[in-house]
Protein backbone atom coordinates (compact mmCIF):
# COMPACT_ATOMS: atom_id res chain seq x y z
CA UNK A 1 0.00 0.00 0.00
CA UNK A 2 2.83 2.34 0.83
CA UNK A 3 4.27 2.08 -2.69
CA UNK A 4 0.88 2.76 -4.23
CA UNK A 5 0.94 6.11 -2.52
CA UNK A 6 4.55 6.51 -3.55
CA UNK A 7 3.73 5.74 -7.20
CA UNK A 8 0.85 8.16 -7.31
CA UNK A 9 3.03 10.85 -5.80
CA UNK A 10 5.58 10.25 -8.54
CA UNK A 11 3.35 11.03 -11.52
CA UNK A 12 -0.21 9.82 -11.17
CA UNK A 13 0.67 6.49 -12.80
CA UNK A 14 0.59 3.16 -11.06
CA UNK A 15 2.75 0.44 -12.54
CA UNK A 16 2.66 -2.92 -10.91
CA UNK A 17 2.98 -5.13 -13.98
CA UNK A 18 4.27 -8.06 -11.98
CA UNK A 19 1.61 -8.18 -9.29
CA UNK A 20 -0.44 -10.49 -11.47
CA UNK A 21 2.18 -13.21 -11.06
CA UNK A 22 1.90 -13.31 -7.30
CA UNK A 23 0.91 -16.62 -5.82
CA UNK A 24 -1.77 -15.94 -3.22
CA UNK A 25 -3.59 -18.17 -0.84
CA UNK A 26 -7.28 -18.10 -1.68
CA UNK A 27 -8.92 -19.27 1.53
CA UNK A 28 -6.52 -18.15 4.21
CA UNK A 29 -4.37 -15.17 4.99
CA UNK A 30 -1.56 -17.30 6.22
CA UNK A 31 1.67 -17.96 4.36
CA UNK A 32 1.52 -20.13 1.25
CA UNK A 33 2.50 -23.59 2.36
CA UNK A 34 2.77 -26.45 -0.04
CA UNK A 35 -0.79 -27.69 0.06
CA UNK A 36 -2.64 -24.39 0.40
CA UNK A 37 -5.18 -23.68 -2.30
CA UNK A 38 -3.75 -20.73 -4.21
CA UNK A 39 -4.70 -18.88 -7.36
CA UNK A 40 -2.16 -21.11 -9.08
CA UNK A 41 -3.99 -24.19 -7.80
CA UNK A 42 -7.31 -22.78 -8.95
CA UNK A 43 -6.21 -22.10 -12.51
CA UNK A 44 -4.45 -25.43 -12.80
CA UNK A 45 -7.70 -27.03 -11.66
CA UNK A 46 -9.60 -25.07 -14.31
CA UNK A 47 -7.11 -26.34 -16.90
CA UNK A 48 -7.82 -29.89 -15.74
CA UNK A 49 -11.53 -29.16 -15.97
CA UNK A 50 -11.12 -27.93 -19.55
CA UNK A 51 -9.21 -31.08 -20.47
CA UNK A 52 -11.94 -33.22 -18.92
CA UNK A 53 -14.71 -31.26 -20.66
CA UNK A 54 -13.03 -31.44 -24.04
CA UNK A 55 -11.62 -34.95 -23.93
CA UNK A 56 -14.07 -36.83 -21.74
CA UNK A 57 -17.39 -35.03 -22.14
CA UNK A 58 -16.65 -34.08 -25.75
CA UNK A 59 -15.92 -37.65 -26.83
CA UNK A 60 -18.69 -39.22 -24.73
CA UNK A 61 -20.75 -40.30 -27.73
CA UNK A 62 -17.80 -41.97 -29.50
CA UNK A 63 -19.42 -40.88 -32.71
CA UNK A 64 -18.08 -42.11 -36.03
CA UNK A 65 -19.26 -38.82 -37.47
CA UNK A 66 -17.93 -36.54 -34.74
CA UNK A 67 -19.71 -33.72 -33.01
CA UNK A 68 -17.98 -30.34 -33.01
CA UNK A 69 -16.40 -30.83 -29.61
CA UNK A 70 -15.28 -34.32 -30.52
CA UNK A 71 -13.71 -32.98 -33.73
CA UNK A 72 -11.72 -30.49 -31.71
CA UNK A 73 -10.55 -33.22 -29.33
CA UNK A 74 -9.62 -35.41 -32.31
CA UNK A 75 -7.83 -32.47 -33.91
CA UNK A 76 -5.63 -32.05 -30.83
CA UNK A 77 -5.04 -35.79 -30.65
CA UNK A 78 -4.16 -36.09 -34.32
CA UNK A 79 -1.93 -33.02 -34.29
CA UNK A 80 0.23 -34.12 -31.36
CA UNK A 81 0.16 -37.79 -32.33
CA UNK A 82 1.43 -36.96 -35.80
CA UNK A 83 4.06 -34.65 -34.34
CA UNK A 84 5.35 -37.35 -32.00
CA UNK A 85 5.32 -39.96 -34.76
CA UNK A 86 6.99 -37.70 -37.33
CA UNK A 87 9.71 -36.43 -35.02
CA UNK A 88 10.56 -39.42 -32.83
CA UNK A 89 9.65 -42.22 -35.21
CA UNK A 90 7.51 -45.23 -34.50
CA UNK A 91 9.18 -46.23 -31.24
CA UNK A 92 8.46 -42.82 -29.71
CA UNK A 93 4.70 -43.27 -29.99
CA UNK A 94 4.48 -45.00 -26.62
CA UNK A 95 5.54 -41.74 -24.94
CA UNK A 96 2.67 -39.94 -26.65
CA UNK A 97 0.37 -39.82 -23.56
CA UNK A 98 3.08 -38.06 -21.51
CA UNK A 99 3.84 -35.56 -24.25
CA UNK A 100 0.14 -34.98 -24.81
CA UNK A 101 -0.35 -34.37 -21.08
CA UNK A 102 2.40 -31.74 -21.03
CA UNK A 103 1.08 -30.12 -24.20
CA UNK A 104 -2.48 -29.89 -22.96
CA UNK A 105 -1.45 -28.52 -19.58
CA UNK A 106 0.67 -25.78 -21.16
CA UNK A 107 -1.89 -25.06 -23.86
CA UNK A 108 -4.80 -24.60 -21.48
CA UNK A 109 -2.77 -22.82 -18.81
CA UNK A 110 -1.53 -20.36 -21.46
CA UNK A 111 -4.94 -19.67 -22.95
CA UNK A 112 -6.78 -19.49 -19.61
CA UNK A 113 -4.13 -17.02 -18.52
CA UNK A 114 -5.33 -14.69 -21.28
CA UNK A 115 -8.75 -14.31 -19.65
CA UNK A 116 -9.05 -11.00 -17.81
CA UNK A 117 -8.43 -11.29 -14.05
CA UNK A 118 -7.06 -14.79 -14.47
CA UNK A 119 -3.71 -16.16 -13.47
CA UNK A 120 -1.12 -17.94 -15.59
CA UNK A 121 0.58 -20.92 -13.90
CA UNK A 122 2.96 -21.34 -16.85
CA UNK A 123 4.39 -17.85 -16.36
CA UNK A 124 6.06 -19.19 -13.21
CA UNK A 125 9.60 -20.42 -13.48
CA UNK A 126 8.87 -22.93 -10.70
CA UNK A 127 6.27 -24.59 -12.92
CA UNK A 128 8.14 -24.48 -16.21
CA UNK A 129 11.38 -25.60 -14.55
CA UNK A 130 9.63 -28.71 -13.27
CA UNK A 131 8.32 -29.38 -16.76
CA UNK A 132 11.67 -28.60 -18.43
CA UNK A 133 13.81 -30.56 -16.00
CA UNK A 134 11.24 -33.33 -15.94
CA UNK A 135 11.62 -33.70 -19.70
CA UNK A 136 15.40 -33.43 -19.42
CA UNK A 137 15.71 -36.11 -16.70
CA UNK A 138 13.21 -38.44 -18.36
CA UNK A 139 14.89 -38.12 -21.74
CA UNK A 140 18.36 -38.68 -20.27
CA UNK A 141 17.19 -41.81 -18.42
CA UNK A 142 15.42 -43.12 -21.55
CA UNK A 143 18.59 -42.43 -23.56
CA UNK A 144 20.83 -44.45 -21.25
CA UNK A 145 18.30 -47.25 -20.74
CA UNK A 146 17.67 -47.66 -24.47
CA UNK A 147 21.20 -47.19 -25.74
CA UNK A 148 23.52 -47.80 -22.79
CA UNK A 149 26.88 -46.09 -23.09
CA UNK A 150 26.38 -45.55 -26.81
CA UNK A 151 23.97 -42.77 -25.84
CA UNK A 152 27.14 -40.70 -25.35
CA UNK A 153 27.57 -40.94 -29.14
CA UNK A 154 25.05 -38.09 -29.18
CA UNK A 155 27.97 -35.81 -28.29
CA UNK A 156 30.45 -37.34 -30.72
CA UNK A 157 29.99 -36.00 -34.23
CA UNK A 158 31.32 -38.88 -36.31
CA UNK A 159 30.98 -36.96 -39.55
CA UNK A 160 32.98 -33.92 -38.36
CA UNK A 161 36.77 -33.67 -38.96
CA UNK A 162 38.62 -35.63 -36.29
CA UNK A 163 40.42 -32.54 -34.94
CA UNK A 164 37.16 -30.74 -34.32
CA UNK A 165 35.35 -33.64 -32.70
CA UNK A 166 36.51 -33.07 -29.09
CA UNK A 167 35.70 -29.37 -29.36
CA UNK A 168 32.29 -30.12 -30.80
CA UNK A 169 31.76 -32.74 -28.08
CA UNK A 170 32.35 -30.13 -25.37
CA UNK A 171 29.96 -27.70 -27.05
CA UNK A 172 27.39 -30.47 -27.44
CA UNK A 173 27.64 -31.42 -23.76
CA UNK A 174 27.20 -27.81 -22.69
CA UNK A 175 24.25 -27.36 -25.02
CA UNK A 176 22.74 -30.59 -23.72
CA UNK A 177 22.80 -29.29 -20.16
CA UNK A 178 21.52 -25.90 -21.18
CA UNK A 179 18.48 -27.50 -22.79
CA UNK A 180 16.26 -27.72 -19.68
CA UNK A 181 17.14 -24.17 -18.69
CA UNK A 182 16.28 -22.70 -22.08
CA UNK A 183 13.32 -25.03 -22.36
CA UNK A 184 11.74 -23.73 -19.16
CA UNK A 185 12.83 -20.10 -19.29
CA UNK A 186 11.55 -19.74 -22.86
CA UNK A 187 8.04 -20.63 -21.79
CA UNK A 188 7.89 -18.67 -18.53
CA UNK A 189 9.73 -15.71 -20.07
CA UNK A 190 7.46 -15.40 -23.08
CA UNK A 191 4.31 -15.44 -20.99
CA UNK A 192 5.66 -13.16 -18.29
CA UNK A 193 6.84 -10.61 -20.85
CA UNK A 194 3.55 -10.54 -22.71
CA UNK A 195 1.37 -10.29 -19.63
CA UNK A 196 3.60 -7.63 -18.08
CA UNK A 197 3.53 -5.63 -21.31
CA UNK A 198 -0.27 -5.63 -21.37
CA UNK A 199 -0.25 -4.46 -17.76
CA UNK A 200 2.18 -1.64 -18.55
CA UNK A 201 0.03 -0.41 -21.42
CA UNK A 202 -2.98 -0.66 -19.14
CA UNK A 203 -1.14 1.53 -16.64
CA UNK A 204 -0.75 4.24 -19.29
CA UNK A 205 -4.50 4.22 -19.86
CA UNK A 206 -4.83 6.31 -16.69
CA UNK A 207 -3.72 9.35 -18.69
CA UNK A 208 -6.68 10.45 -20.83
CA UNK A 209 -4.49 11.76 -23.65
CA UNK A 210 -2.74 8.47 -24.31
CA UNK A 211 -5.63 6.21 -23.33
CA UNK A 212 -6.78 5.47 -26.95
CA UNK A 213 -3.23 4.59 -27.98
CA UNK A 214 -2.96 2.47 -24.89
CA UNK A 215 -6.17 0.59 -25.68
CA UNK A 216 -5.05 -0.07 -29.26
CA UNK A 217 -1.69 -1.25 -27.98
CA UNK A 218 -3.34 -3.57 -25.47
CA UNK A 219 -5.50 -5.05 -28.23
CA UNK A 220 -2.44 -5.55 -30.45
CA UNK A 221 -0.34 -7.12 -27.72
CA UNK A 222 -3.26 -9.27 -26.70
CA UNK A 223 -3.50 -10.58 -30.28
CA UNK A 224 0.20 -11.30 -30.19
CA UNK A 225 -0.24 -13.08 -26.86
CA UNK A 226 -2.92 -15.33 -28.32
CA UNK A 227 -0.36 -16.42 -30.89
CA UNK A 228 2.34 -16.76 -28.25
CA UNK A 229 0.10 -18.92 -26.04
CA UNK A 230 -0.39 -21.45 -28.84
CA UNK A 231 3.09 -21.22 -30.28
CA UNK A 232 4.85 -21.65 -26.93
CA UNK A 233 2.81 -24.75 -26.15
CA UNK A 234 3.71 -26.06 -29.61
CA UNK A 235 7.38 -25.15 -29.25
CA UNK A 236 7.67 -26.76 -25.83
CA UNK A 237 6.07 -29.94 -27.17
CA UNK A 238 8.08 -30.19 -30.36
CA UNK A 239 11.32 -29.58 -28.47
CA UNK A 240 10.31 -32.36 -26.09
CA UNK A 241 9.82 -34.60 -29.12
CA UNK A 242 13.20 -33.61 -30.55
CA UNK A 243 14.96 -34.33 -27.23
CA UNK A 244 13.16 -37.65 -27.08
CA UNK A 245 14.28 -38.43 -30.62
CA UNK A 246 17.89 -37.73 -29.56
CA UNK A 247 17.44 -40.17 -26.69
CA UNK A 248 15.93 -42.90 -28.88
CA UNK A 249 18.25 -42.44 -31.86
CA UNK A 250 21.43 -40.78 -30.55
CA UNK A 251 23.54 -41.44 -33.64
CA UNK A 252 23.86 -38.32 -35.73
CA UNK B 1 9.74 4.94 2.41
CA UNK B 2 11.56 2.47 0.22
CA UNK B 3 13.89 1.74 3.08
CA UNK B 4 11.03 0.93 5.39
CA UNK B 5 9.59 -1.51 2.90
CA UNK B 6 12.89 -3.22 2.28
CA UNK B 7 13.34 -3.50 5.97
CA UNK B 8 9.95 -5.12 6.32
CA UNK B 9 10.80 -7.51 3.53
CA UNK B 10 14.11 -8.36 5.08
CA UNK B 11 13.16 -8.68 8.69
CA UNK B 12 9.93 -10.58 8.35
CA UNK B 13 10.09 -12.74 5.25
CA UNK B 14 7.65 -15.26 6.62
CA UNK B 15 5.20 -12.58 7.68
CA UNK B 16 5.70 -10.91 4.32
CA UNK B 17 4.41 -13.92 2.47
CA UNK B 18 1.20 -13.50 4.40
CA UNK B 19 0.90 -10.03 2.94
CA UNK B 20 2.07 -10.96 -0.50
CA UNK B 21 1.12 -7.71 -2.12
CA UNK B 22 3.01 -5.61 0.37
CA UNK B 23 6.04 -7.76 0.07
CA UNK B 24 6.08 -7.58 -3.69
CA UNK B 25 5.86 -3.81 -3.59
CA UNK B 26 8.54 -3.67 -1.01
CA UNK B 27 10.75 -5.95 -3.08
CA UNK B 28 10.11 -3.80 -6.11
CA UNK B 29 11.31 -0.77 -4.29
CA UNK B 30 14.28 -2.73 -3.03
CA UNK B 31 15.33 -3.91 -6.52
CA UNK B 32 14.27 -7.61 -6.65
CA UNK B 33 10.82 -7.49 -8.11
CA UNK B 34 9.55 -10.69 -9.65
CA UNK B 35 7.05 -12.80 -7.69
CA UNK B 36 8.30 -15.68 -9.83
CA UNK B 37 11.58 -15.55 -7.97
CA UNK B 38 10.05 -15.86 -4.52
CA UNK B 39 11.04 -19.35 -3.40
CA UNK B 40 8.44 -19.48 -0.62
CA UNK B 41 5.71 -20.36 -3.14
CA UNK B 42 7.72 -22.95 -5.09
CA UNK B 43 6.76 -25.98 -3.04
CA UNK B 44 3.09 -25.10 -3.39
CA UNK B 45 3.28 -24.57 -7.14
CA UNK B 46 5.33 -27.70 -7.72
CA UNK B 47 3.02 -29.81 -5.58
CA UNK B 48 -0.10 -28.69 -7.38
CA UNK B 49 1.62 -28.89 -10.77
CA UNK B 50 2.46 -32.52 -10.12
CA UNK B 51 -1.10 -33.21 -8.97
CA UNK B 52 -2.45 -31.51 -12.10
CA UNK B 53 -0.14 -33.43 -14.44
CA UNK B 54 -0.97 -36.75 -12.80
CA UNK B 55 -4.70 -36.04 -13.03
CA UNK B 56 -4.48 -34.99 -16.68
CA UNK B 57 -2.30 -38.00 -17.44
CA UNK B 58 -4.76 -40.44 -15.91
CA UNK B 59 -7.79 -38.79 -17.48
CA UNK B 60 -6.06 -39.01 -20.86
CA UNK B 61 -4.48 -42.43 -20.65
CA UNK B 62 -7.41 -44.17 -18.93
CA UNK B 63 -10.38 -42.55 -20.64
CA UNK B 64 -9.76 -40.08 -23.42
CA UNK B 65 -6.93 -41.53 -25.49
CA UNK B 66 -8.23 -45.12 -25.77
CA UNK B 67 -11.63 -43.72 -26.65
CA UNK B 68 -10.32 -41.38 -29.35
CA UNK B 69 -7.98 -44.05 -30.69
CA UNK B 70 -10.91 -46.50 -30.88
CA UNK B 71 -13.11 -43.95 -32.64
CA UNK B 72 -10.37 -43.08 -35.13
CA UNK B 73 -9.63 -46.76 -35.79
CA UNK B 74 -13.30 -47.52 -36.23
CA UNK B 75 -13.72 -44.56 -38.55
CA UNK B 76 -10.75 -45.48 -40.68
CA UNK B 77 -12.00 -49.07 -40.72
CA UNK B 78 -15.43 -47.92 -41.85
CA UNK B 79 -13.90 -45.70 -44.51
CA UNK B 80 -11.63 -48.50 -45.74
CA UNK B 81 -14.56 -50.90 -45.87
CA UNK B 82 -16.73 -48.40 -47.68
CA UNK B 83 -13.99 -47.70 -50.19
CA UNK B 84 -13.45 -51.44 -50.70
CA UNK B 85 -17.20 -51.96 -51.13
CA UNK B 86 -17.36 -49.07 -53.57
CA UNK B 87 -14.41 -50.51 -55.45
CA UNK B 88 -16.14 -53.87 -55.63
CA UNK B 89 -19.37 -52.32 -56.82
CA UNK B 90 -17.48 -50.36 -59.43
CA UNK B 91 -15.82 -53.57 -60.59
CA UNK B 92 -19.21 -55.24 -60.74
CA UNK B 93 -20.62 -52.36 -62.72
CA UNK B 94 -17.71 -52.57 -65.17
CA UNK B 95 -18.26 -56.29 -65.45
CA UNK B 96 -21.96 -55.82 -66.02
CA UNK B 97 -21.24 -53.23 -68.66
CA UNK B 98 -18.82 -55.59 -70.39
CA UNK B 99 -21.40 -58.37 -70.24
CA UNK B 100 -24.04 -56.06 -71.62
CA UNK B 101 -21.77 -54.93 -74.44
CA UNK B 102 -20.88 -58.49 -75.24
CA UNK B 103 -24.54 -59.50 -75.26
CA UNK B 104 -25.32 -56.55 -77.48
CA UNK B 105 -22.52 -57.44 -79.90
CA UNK B 106 -23.64 -61.08 -79.88
CA UNK B 107 -27.21 -60.10 -80.58
CA UNK B 108 -26.07 -57.85 -83.42
CA UNK B 109 -23.97 -60.64 -84.91
CA UNK B 110 -26.84 -63.09 -84.49
CA UNK B 111 -29.24 -60.72 -86.16
CA UNK B 112 -26.83 -60.12 -89.03
CA UNK B 113 -26.36 -63.88 -89.39
CA UNK B 114 -30.09 -64.48 -89.39
CA UNK B 115 -30.59 -61.76 -91.98
CA UNK B 116 -27.86 -63.24 -94.17
CA UNK B 117 -29.23 -66.77 -93.72
CA UNK B 118 -32.73 -65.69 -94.49
CA UNK B 119 -31.52 -63.80 -97.57
CA UNK B 120 -29.61 -66.85 -98.75
CA UNK B 121 -32.60 -69.10 -98.02
CA UNK B 122 -34.95 -66.82 -99.89
CA UNK B 123 -32.48 -66.56 -102.79
CA UNK B 124 -32.13 -70.32 -103.05
CA UNK B 125 -35.90 -70.82 -102.75
CA UNK B 126 -36.37 -68.16 -105.34
CA UNK B 127 -33.83 -69.81 -107.65
CA UNK B 128 -35.54 -73.18 -107.25
CA UNK B 129 -38.95 -71.67 -107.88
CA UNK B 130 -37.68 -69.72 -110.89
CA UNK B 131 -36.07 -72.86 -112.29
CA UNK B 132 -39.31 -74.80 -111.68
CA UNK B 133 -41.33 -72.04 -113.27
CA UNK B 134 -38.94 -71.93 -116.25
CA UNK B 135 -39.30 -75.69 -116.62
CA UNK B 136 -43.07 -75.46 -116.43
CA UNK B 137 -43.04 -72.62 -118.93
CA UNK B 138 -40.74 -74.59 -121.26
CA UNK B 139 -43.02 -77.66 -120.97
CA UNK B 140 -46.08 -75.57 -121.61
CA UNK B 141 -44.40 -73.89 -124.58
CA UNK B 142 -43.39 -77.25 -126.02
CA UNK B 143 -46.91 -78.58 -125.50
CA UNK B 144 -48.36 -75.52 -127.12
CA UNK B 145 -45.99 -75.81 -130.09
CA UNK B 146 -46.91 -79.44 -130.43
CA UNK B 147 -50.60 -78.62 -130.29
CA UNK B 148 -50.11 -75.91 -132.90
CA UNK B 149 -48.23 -78.35 -135.14
CA UNK B 150 -50.99 -80.91 -134.70
CA UNK B 151 -53.64 -78.34 -135.42
CA UNK B 152 -51.69 -77.19 -138.45
CA UNK B 153 -51.31 -80.75 -139.68
CA UNK B 154 -54.98 -81.42 -139.04
CA UNK B 155 -55.89 -78.25 -140.84
CA UNK B 156 -53.75 -79.17 -143.87
CA UNK B 157 -55.31 -82.63 -143.92
CA UNK B 158 -58.77 -81.14 -143.62
CA UNK B 159 -58.02 -78.67 -146.40
CA UNK B 160 -56.76 -81.50 -148.61
CA UNK B 161 -59.87 -83.55 -147.87
CA UNK B 162 -62.15 -80.63 -148.44
CA UNK B 163 -60.27 -79.79 -151.64
CA UNK B 164 -60.57 -83.42 -152.84
CA UNK B 165 -64.24 -83.57 -151.95
CA UNK B 166 -64.84 -80.15 -153.49
CA UNK B 167 -62.84 -81.07 -156.63
CA UNK B 168 -64.80 -84.36 -156.88
CA UNK B 169 -68.05 -82.48 -156.41
CA UNK B 170 -67.07 -79.80 -158.97
CA UNK B 171 -66.05 -82.45 -161.48
CA UNK B 172 -69.35 -84.32 -160.90
CA UNK B 173 -71.29 -81.07 -161.23
CA UNK B 174 -69.58 -80.36 -164.47
CA UNK B 175 -70.87 -83.64 -165.61
CA UNK B 176 -67.79 -85.58 -165.71
CA UNK B 177 -66.88 -88.60 -163.80
CA UNK B 178 -63.59 -88.21 -162.28
CA UNK B 179 -61.40 -90.88 -161.10
CA UNK B 180 -60.97 -90.40 -157.41
CA UNK B 181 -57.31 -91.38 -157.56
CA UNK B 182 -56.58 -88.80 -160.28
CA UNK B 183 -58.31 -86.12 -158.32
CA UNK B 184 -56.41 -86.99 -155.19
CA UNK B 185 -53.11 -86.87 -157.05
CA UNK B 186 -54.05 -83.57 -158.65
CA UNK B 187 -55.10 -82.02 -155.36
CA UNK B 188 -51.95 -83.22 -153.64
CA UNK B 189 -50.00 -81.70 -156.56
CA UNK B 190 -51.82 -78.39 -156.18
CA UNK B 191 -51.43 -78.34 -152.35
CA UNK B 192 -47.68 -78.68 -152.66
CA UNK B 193 -47.65 -75.88 -155.08
Automatic annotation (TrEMBL), chain A:
InterPro entries: ATP_synth_F0_asu, ATP_synth_F0_asu_AS, ATP_synth_F0_asu_bact/mt, F0_ATP_A_sf. The chain crosses the membrane at residues 34-56, 63-83, 95-117, 129-156, 162-179, 200-220, 226-244. The keyword S-adenosyl-L-methionine does not apply. Its main location: membrane. Belongs to the ATPase A chain family. The gene is atpB. It is a multi-pass membrane protein. This is ATP synthase subunit a. HAMAP family: ATP_synth_a_bact (MF_01393). NCBIfam families: ATP_synt_6_or_A, PRK05815.2-4. PANTHER family: ATP SYNTHASE SUBUNIT A. The keyword Membrane applies. The lineage of its organism: Bacteria, Pseudomonadati, Pseudomonadota, Alphaproteobacteria, Rhodobacterales. Keywords: ATP synthesis, Cell membrane, CF(0), Hydrogen ion transport, Ion transport, Membrane, Transmembrane, Transmembrane helix, Transport. Pfam families: ATP-synt_A (PF00119). It comes from the Bacteria. Key component of the proton channel; it plays a direct role in the translocation of protons across the membrane. It is found in: Cell membrane; Membrane.
TrEMBL record, chain B:
PANTHER family: ATP SYNTHASE SUBUNIT B, ATP SYNTHASE SUBUNIT B', CHLOROPLASTIC. It comes from the Bacteria. Component of the F(0) channel, it forms part of the peripheral stalk, linking F(1) to F(0). The b'-subunit is a diverged and duplicated form of b found in plants and photosynthetic bacteria. This is ATP synthase subunit b. F-type ATPases have 2 components, F(1) - the catalytic core - and F(0) - the membrane proton channel. F(1) has five subunits: alpha(3), beta(3), gamma(1), delta(1), epsilon(1). F(0) has three main subunits: a(1), b(2) and c(10-14). The alpha and beta chains form an alternating ring which encloses part of the gamma chain. F(1) is attached to F(0) by a central stalk formed by the gamma and epsilon chains, while a peripheral stalk is formed by the delta and b chains. It is found in: Cell membrane; Endomembrane system. It is a single-pass membrane protein. The chain crosses the membrane at residues 46-65. Keywords: ATP synthesis, Cell membrane, CF(0), Hydrogen ion transport, Ion transport, Membrane, Transmembrane, Transmembrane helix, Transport. Belongs to the ATPase B chain family. NCBIfam families: PRK13454.1. The keyword Cell membrane applies. Its main location: membrane.
Amino acid sequence: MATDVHGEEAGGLVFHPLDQFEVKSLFSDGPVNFISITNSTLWMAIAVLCVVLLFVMGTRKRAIIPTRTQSIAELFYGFIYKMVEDVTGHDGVKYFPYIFTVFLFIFFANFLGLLPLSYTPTAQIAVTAVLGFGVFIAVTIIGFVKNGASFLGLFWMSDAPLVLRPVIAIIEVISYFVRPVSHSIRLAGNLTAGHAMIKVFAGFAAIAAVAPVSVVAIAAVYGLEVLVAGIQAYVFTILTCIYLKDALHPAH
Amino acid sequence: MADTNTEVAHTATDVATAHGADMAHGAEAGGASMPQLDPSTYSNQIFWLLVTLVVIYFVLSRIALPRIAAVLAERSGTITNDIAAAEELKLKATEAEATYNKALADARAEAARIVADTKAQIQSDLDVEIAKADEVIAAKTAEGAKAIDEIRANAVASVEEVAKDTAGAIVAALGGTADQAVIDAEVAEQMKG
